[in-house]
Amino acid sequence: MKIIRFIIFNTFIFFFCCQNEEYQDCHGTAGGGAYFDDCGDCVGGRTGLNECKEDCNGDLGGLAFINPCDICVDGETEIQIDSCKSFEYNGKTYSTVIIGEQVWANEDLMTEKYNDGSIIPEYEGNDSIGTFSKNILSLENEKNGVFYSSHIALSTSIAPQGWRVPNKNDFEKLIEELGGNYIAGGKLKKSGFTSWDFPNNFATNESGFSAIGKGYRSSSGDFQQVGKKCTYWSTDTVQTSDTTTSSYLWALKLSFDSNYADLSPDSLSISHLIRLIKTN
Predict the structure, then answer these.
(1) d(Cα 280, Cα 269) in Å, to the nearest integer?
(2) Which residue(s) pair with 26 in the sheet?
(3) Over residues 226-235, mean pLDDT
(4) Residues 6+ apart with CB under 8 A from 198
(5) Do 161 and 276 form a contact (C-beta atoms < 8 A)?
(6) pTM of structure
(7) pLDDT at 16 over 70
């Protein structure tokens, strides 16, 4: 009888202990909430890990991602992370480039129409407001350019959907990404002596921006500094001390004999190039 009681008692104790033993998750935490995901990894709970997901290429736990040009890259895609799409606008295809977190056209705007198809008037030597000027040196010349008045730079109708004329802050971020004003100029300029006059100092085009020395159109209608300078409009006006708007826009200026990227005000009476940036 004593033996039977001993067996019953110990069986009860064993059963009670088993019933009250806390469950351990895959991380070994008693009562934890970790679990195995579809990739076979222990996640959640106290692991500090998140459940694996499909990447943009459809691969479970993959490393592919959408880059600033809206392309699924890396991982198993076999597509380079700096790959970019071109875009078509008013009959011309523009190639693009990623610089830091920005996406730029790496060609100057050449349209003679607004995005609604309406014609932009060409400068005829009288009123430059809302006009463009073409400087065509030859059919194959890289320095051929279309120069726009400040009025056009400020227009919301000059760029295609998804693109815009850069503001001052856009240019500041671009310059900062390339190491600052004193060295960014060379990284923005196309190298060699077909796009710029000799010596085209420090030009490496490391950024892929491919700026060309097309000069500018003066207030008298002449094309100046071809091969030596290029200037890009921004959309930010210069404010005077009394907060009224003066007759200047911020512009990015590059030179054939300098490594400096100059961001400074310029007169509304002249015409400059426009380089589009992708809208985030």
Answers:
(1) 31
(2) none
(3) 98
(4) 256
(5) no
(6) 0.82
(7) no
